[in-house]
Amino acid sequence: MRIALPAQIDGSAFASHDPAAPIVALDGLTMGTSWRVLFVPPRGADTGVVQRAIVTRLAGLVAEMSHWDSGSILARFNRAAAGTWTTLPPDFAHVMAAGLRSAALSEGAFDPAIGRLVDLWGFGPPGAMPAPDAAEIAAARAASGWQRLDFDPAARRLRQPGGVALDLSGIAKGHAVDALADVLRASGVRHALVEVGGELAGFGIRPDGDPWWVDLEAPPGADLPPLRVALHGLAAATSGDYARGAHNLDPRTGRPAAHGVVSVSVLHASAMEADAWASALTVLGPGGITLADRMGLAARIVTVTGGAMREHLSAALTAML
């Protein structure tokens, strides 16, 4: 068993630590997946109020950024006429800014504007589709791409150039994790573990004095030593093809990524950033470790070649072990 620890410990977590406190679990459905929180409630807290705040927050995010809800702000942007400017609410603008930043830094390995390609390959709302031919892929790529977008972050405005379809599925779940962590903190919670669709974030400590331990996902049958992470002021996101098949598209080619990558995990202070970079590194493949090192990202890439699995760790993650 390998253990990954954060570089810093929050001393205030121990000041508010109560070894006799209970752990409350809440869960539900959102974004086509599930959410779950484990938290230590403040004395006298009404957990029903906390749950309603969580449900309301998640519903607001879906109404803004769902690729599947035809009434969402994102869906309306995708249908907007060429040249139309859309004023984005703060959450949407925050995610958009992060997505465009990741797109630039990854040279397009992450792209928030590939909704046409996602639908073409049968991973979007239209459902299963026949494998597209080269002409269909070329047409979808021509109508896609983050570089076609004009974004004014100060005014929170995004311009539809014509035909671009956003898909924020590679970053929105991570933002939802961060948002729920903020909801808990605003409710007076100082110790919690948050999960949305497999993306996680933890802060504070458990009543028993341990951090919130999570094991990084590994493909079934992988002969790799377990890697356990202390989510203390940290988030973890994992992207992989072993559960859903080759659903990670390379925006630069318009086709499924083909580097033998089966799993990528990223640790970051922000679940949103971890989510986006897990998506980008899945596309970049083993060579993505070089970018992870340049960015100071704690990342693990698992590849399979000739039936043999291999693990690639970034310098930042190695330093945490």
From TrEMBL:
SUPFAM superfamilies: ApbE-like. Its EC number is 2.7.1.180. It catalyses: L-threonyl-[protein] + FAD = FMN-L-threonyl-[protein] + AMP + H(+). InterPro entries: ApbE, ApbE-like_sf. Its cofactor is Mg(2+). Transmembrane segments: none annotated. GO terms for molecular function: transferase activity. Keywords: FAD, Flavoprotein, Magnesium, Metal-binding, Transferase. It comes from the Bacteria. Belongs to the ApbE family. PANTHER family: FAD:PROTEIN FMN TRANSFERASE, THIAMINE BIOSYNTHESIS LIPOPROTEIN APBE. This is FAD:protein FMN transferase.
